[in-house]
Amino acid sequence: MQALMTVVVVITVAILVIIGAWAYSRANRLDRLNVRVDLAWQALEAALERRTVVVRLLTAWMEDSGVPETITAARHLAACADAAEYAPRASREDAENALSTALNRVDPSVRPPGLIAELADAETRVMMARRFYNDAVRDTRNLADRFLVRRLRLGGRAQRPEYFEIVERVTTSGTAD
Q: In the CATH scheme, what architecture does the domain 34-152 have?
């Protein structure tokens, strides 16, 4: 009887150690994914800020043109850039979409050749950073949504990350491609 009791205790301890190791590895993985989301957000913010800098250069060039329609468009574009730059994280998507739409409405012939390439590069970097960020969010949410991870509260107090959805390319009619 004593031997049977010892076997049961050993098996129980082994099962608890295995469950503890699994829970520790899942919690550690979830923590690393949250760090990945934070780093991806920082990269996305940097790409968005770079695009805003290029837009400001474009608006300065447009205002120097002396054409009244171009100056009006430049002021609208500058206002959209300000709104996007200073928007809180919760409303950043809408502000960035408004900036993209305003930027697309600027006549391409008004854009100086040097800034065309710079703007295209900045927009490409924004789209790449957004995709990396959303990939990190997807991976984090997939792990955090698993039944045992939720039940054992392995995510701790980390907030659930949200996707960042902006229009990748806007046509002159205002619809996304």
A: Up-down Bundle (1.20)
Sign for the CA dihedral angle at 68, 73, 74, 76 comes to positive
pTM of the model: 0.84
* Residue whose token pair is 């800034």: 115
**Amino acid identity for residue 153 in this structure:** R
Closest CA to 99 of 85, 110, 89: 85
CA distance 113 to 59: 14
The one-letter code for the residue type at 41 is W
Q: At what angle do helices 92-104 and 68-86 cross, to 10 degrees?
A: 160
pLDDT digits (tens, 9 = 90+) for 152-177: 888 888 889 999 999 876 444 444 54
